């Protein structure tokens, strides 16, 4: 049984990914922060997790290592070596400044803690447990793309964090290119989640539902062998 870790799995895209991977027969380790995950499934394990807190990141990583170790004891000698992380989906994130027309330093710092530093911290801690041929997906946004036009003043901290995360994705892909670990950035589009709906207006609303990016993520990690790319709607997009 393959293992996937999905952060921010209690709602939105993360919850849809959790459901998709469980449907496909994976062991899924999901995290939540404020909203508990209400799904009960024999192949699902959940951890409370604050991505902005280094001690919480460390505790979660140790919890993953302990869980994998316990799984190994349940396996035969021939298969125990295969108990590793096959997929890491860094989905957890926050948007604090959708309508701020000027830079709010405190909000930017808080956003960077969650949307960038916490992701880097967790990823680096889990790298030793990533399986041969595994896949790391950093959920990003068109707001993190330098090729996308900026058409309004808001989301300054969010844009900065996502742009920096894209560069981490590219540098990590280069660093791990000889280790058979694929790193991808994933733009889900404008999805009807709590975050996506916060950007809606009377005339413009999210055009996508959560099951659509969840399906795209699943196909990405199960079929794609290209490393260090930025994906949107099943196609490579410009950085």
Q: How many beta strands in the DSSP annotation?
A: 8
CATH homologous group name: NAD(P)-binding Rossmann-like Domain
- How many domains comprise the coordinates? 1
Radius of gyration: 17 Å
What would you say this structure looks like, in words?
The chain has helices at 12-23, 54-73, 105-126, 156-175, 194-197, 211-223, and strands at 3-6, 27-32, 44-48, 85-90, 130-139, 182-187, 229-232, 235-236. The chain has 239 residues and is an alpha/beta fold. The chain has one domain (3-236): Rossmann fold (3-Layer(aba) Sandwich). The chain has an eight-stranded mixed beta sheet with strand order 3-2-1-4-5-6-7-8, sandwiched between helices. Helix 3 links the parallel strand 4 and strand 5. Helix 1 (12-23) crosses helix 6 (211-223), helix 2 packs parallel to helix 3 and helix 3 runs parallel beside helix 4 (156-175). The longest helix is centred in the middle third of the chain and has 22 residues, at 105-126. The protein is globular, with a radius of gyration of 17 Å. The model has no long low-confidence stretch (mean pLDDT 92).
Briefly say what this structure is:
With 239 residues, the chain is of the alpha/beta class.
């Amino acid at each position: 049984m393959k293992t996937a870790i999905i952060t921010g799995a209690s709602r939105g895209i993360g919850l849809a990914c959790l459901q998709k991977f469980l449907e496909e027969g994976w062991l899924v380790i999901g995290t939540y922060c404020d909203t508990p995950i209400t799904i009960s499934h024999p192949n699902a394990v959940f951890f409370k997790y604050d991505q902005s807190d280094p001690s919480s990141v460390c505790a979660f990583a140790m919890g993953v290592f302990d869980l994998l170790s316990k799984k190994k004891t349940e396996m035969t000698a021939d298969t125990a070596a295969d108990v590793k992380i096959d997929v890491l989906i860094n989905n957890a994130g926050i948007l604090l400044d959708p309508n701020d027309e000027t830079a709010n330093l405190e909000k930017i710092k808080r956003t960077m803690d969650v949307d960038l530093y916490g992701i880097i911290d967790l990823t680096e801690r889990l790298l030793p447990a990533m399986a041969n041929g595994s896949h790391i997906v950093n959920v990003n946004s068109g707001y993190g793309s330098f090729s996308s036009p900026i058409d309004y003043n808001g989301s300054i901290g969010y844009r900065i964090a996502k742009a920096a995360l894209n560069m981490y994705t590219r540098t990590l892909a280069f660093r791990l290119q000889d280790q058979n670990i694929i790193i991808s950035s994933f733009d889900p589009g404008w999805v009807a989640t709590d975050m996506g709906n916060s950007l809606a207006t009377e005339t413009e609303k999210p055009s996508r539902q959560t099951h659509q990016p969840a399906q795209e993520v699943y196909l990405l990690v199960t079929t794609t062998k290209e490393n260090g790319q930025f994906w949107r709607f099943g196609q490579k997009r410009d950085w």
